[in-house]
Amino acid sequence: MQQDEVRHPAELVAFARVKAGDVVVDVWPGGGYWSRLFSTVVGPKGKVVAYVPAEITGFKSDPLALAKAISTEAGHANVEASSYPLAEQPGADMAKKVDVVWTFENYHDLHDSFMKGADVNAFNQAVFKRLKPGGYYIVADHAAAAGTGLKNTEDLHRIDPAAVKAEVEKAGFVLDGESTVLAVQGDDHQLKIFDPAIRGKTDRFVLRFKKPSP
């Protein structure tokens, strides 16, 4: 598959340390590529939560309907669609019960105006509370030029990895690893990710954060 060629699923699943029996939250699943993949990896004893932020449920693509449809497919009954505001804190049924939280190419969008003033810090804190001690939070996104911080999240759809690290570590996480499997040399970080010259060939970073054990 073409998506496999640009997403390197085997390498990233290994990097995320997703395994059989895990509970995985796929934040903003889009078409469901990663939710379906994680569903197969975690198996019947595991669970995948395809989480659609309430802030985007009104999109024309109907992302919540797309997420709900995954569980109706053969082999993916362990996928559960979920939607609530980004900053909502977990109830007792979810607190400290998640092994991996994953977000792919969408973290930068959490800062954009169409997210209706979403509080990214509150979201990261909610992720922290959902994860088990020792659990992982994986953020993959399009890289902005070093030192630009959050400047290009809306116009170029890019984010400085250093800004992500600062925000996520503020919530209590520890940076546990970085993968360069999606890195692309020569990407002009000043171009919008949809520019035909680089679309599908952007420089992307992958960060693994860990919730410390007590």
Automatic annotation (TrEMBL):
Keywords tagged on the record: Methyltransferase, Transferase
rRNA-binding as UniProt keyword: no
Gene Ontology molecular functions: methyltransferase activity
InterPro entries for the chain: S-AdoMet-dep_MeTrfase_Alr7345, SAM-dependent_MTases_sf
An annotated GO BP: methylation
SUPFAM superfamilies reported for this sequence: S-adenosyl-L-methionine-dependent methyltransferases
Protein name: Methyltransferase
